[in-house]
Amino acid sequence: MIKYYKLMAGHVAAAERSEAQITMLVSPNQEEINALMKENQLDEHTIASAFDTEELARLEYEDDYTAIIFKKPKSYNAEDQFLFRITSFGIFIFTNKVVILSDTDLPLLDEKRFSRITSLNMFVLKLLNYSAYHFGEHLRIISRVNDELEAKLVSSMENKYLLYMFGLCKSLVYYLDAISSNQTVLRKLQSGRNLMFTEAEKDLLDDIYIETSQGLKQTENLSNILSSMMDARASIVSNNLNSLMKRLTILTIGIMVPTFVVSFFSMNIQYPFGIGVEFGNPYAFWLVVFLVILGTVGFLFLNKKNKL
Question: What total number of domains does the chain contain?
Answer without folding.
Answer: 2
